[in-house]
Amino acid sequence: MASTQKHKKPEKVRPAGFPTRDQVVEFITSSEQPAGKREIAKAFGLKGQEKIALKALLKDMADEGLIDIGPARAFHKMGGVPKVTVLRIVDVDDTTLIATPERWEAEGQPAPRLRVIERGKRGALTIGDRILARTEEAGRGWVAHVMKKLAKSSEQLLGVVEEMADGKLWLRPVDKRIRKDTPISDVGEAKPGDLVLAEPHGRPPRISARVTDILGDPFAPRSFSMIAIHKHGIPHVFPDRVEEEAEKASALPLHEDKREDLRHLPILAIDPVDARDHDDAVWAAPDDDAGNPGGYRAIVAIADVSYYVRPGSALDKEARKRGNSVYFPDQVVPMLPHELSSDMCSLRAGRDRAAMACHLTINAQGKVTAWRFTRAVIRVAAVLAYEDAQAAIDGAPAEEGAATDSRLQADALLDAALKPLWACWALLRKARDARDPLALDLPERRVVLDDHGKIVSVAVRERLDAHMLIEDYMIAANVAAAKALEQKKAPVMYRIHEPPSRDKLVALKDYLATFDIPFALGQVVRPSTFNQLIAKVGDMEEKPQIMEQILRSQTQAYYGPQNMGHFGLALGSYAHFTSPIRRYADLLVHRALVGAHGLELPAPKGKDIPERSSLSQDDYENMGRVGEMISGHERRAMEAERETVDRYVAAFLAAHVGEIVQARITGVQNFGFFATVEGLGGDGLVPVSTMGAEHFFYDEAGRALQGVESGDRYSVGQRLELRLAEADPINGSLRFELPDSPASRGGPMKRDRTRPGVVHRGRPKNIRHIGSKRGKHRK
Length: 779
Fold this sequence. Notes:
By secondary structure, the chain is an alpha+beta fold. It is built from 19 helices and 34 strands. The protein is globular.
């Protein structure tokens, strides 16, 4: 005992009333605000020398492992997290988001995983988002109450290492919205030209980048899509447990004796020529029932994904985390592992496949008068490309010796399968025309690559009757699924498209006024309202951009359990049922149908796979939350796909820098105007600084730039010739010049970094702004 006393560290003298270690820990764990030294001193009424003693106490407590210091120099209990802190969402457990502290510096301890709790509608959060949250211990773990979603400004930087003439390295961003490069303070093993992930360091204005991951050559095959995958945090590697479960699930017996057998019918899958999976197939035949003269029976057969991907399984959790498949020109990031998405759940020709069959009865007016759903086994007669099905129905002769298998099969199945499908579609088309849904026929770009990932062409997809035929069959099945669930009072994951907001309609009215096209705001707005507007536009030169503006006036569709109708399709009830391979919403609709219509099959035996394939209790309780989540995933996928196509377009055009191209103005600002290459897409800027010494007026209401001396006017929608000055595949950006302006050197534009601290702001010197009465009421 004496020996112990001899070596014991002498206790420091503390002032009277000074807080104990326990009191300090209790205060910082219960404080509603970050508890730094100042807050602790204020709470205990410490002054002068007491503050110095407090500093020493806090250092001792940190050395002893009782507390740790977090962001903003706030203390928290060791092994815990600050009461209020910044978290990053890293995972999804069923419907619960999981977050970890953005900064975690406790050596030897893994970062805690906090369950995120949202109150009210703060906007759907997803993996990669940053939040400010209030944290607390609950049970055996931690929970985080969201205070607000934070901007992504301090996320990792994605860019290409670029070496300047002076030998210094800079990070050129892949996001074309970021116009400033970042000096690299730590390049690690990366070399100039490498695509890298980096962390920002320092404080503004002295921000530098430290390379953390090398992603490789940005021009290698599949790199453009990998840029988008990393930028948007899209999960693209399946965990081993998910792959293993997919193998087990794919071996499940079909239970043909308990399914409706439709293998005798010539059911067809009609898809794009480059389709990677086939999840829907169709069949139709005249209805001989005396009660339906002139009518048809049709079947829309959809891969029975719910049989293989069951609630609560590892497959289910991973599919929910992804929300949907993401389709890039060079690869697909599937929602489900390839054992299912490309094999057992893909309706291959000549193979027995499990399907969910939607049986439709259609009368002579094209109205669907009855429907029923069954679990079936089918054997697709053929997988046809849209173009081949169309050519066969049109009677176009196949080129001798050059006909594909798809075309030969289309000809062979013309009478037995294709003609009845087209005849039944003629009825569905009648009903569609009577409904008068929104008819925006906007072009879709298609990037064609060769086997080595090199761009062969960029073209607009041709719109055929075959495309509209499949679309109308799918819409009919989606409506039937929603109504079949409503009849049973079962939960529905609706596809919702609300009418345009008044603000957007006012903006559209202002825009149309620049073309002298009237648009009354007092009317009840229906899809037919916009169709009549499109008809008025007729073949005007500005028709494409007017249609784009009408599209922008629409609200964004989303998923949710409360039915708000589908404005664009002019439908009262609508749900996605036809693509459960690639959309989680459709999988939930299939599960709901299984439960509501008694379609459960015998439970799997000895495969560690959940018994039920119908909706689980968790599915029931979290429909709203899941709807928000997968709507966010859908927006993420759309943005990633669009950016990747822009990069491919820029790469394709890089070989044409210096050439004159046909372009169309898509936007005007005081610093220049944006234009797109006709037929290809991709936005590029014509900076006003390159338009000569002439002064220009910026007419905000008219969305135009007009020369003071020449009177030349550049307005939205105008077609003109431009010289392609720059095409940057890294960020997908283009830059144009007027044909009569002095040509600049082609290729990526080098930035002048000799004066990094100088930033020119404000209106360009040759711009004057016109205030307009028409623009005053804008919001």
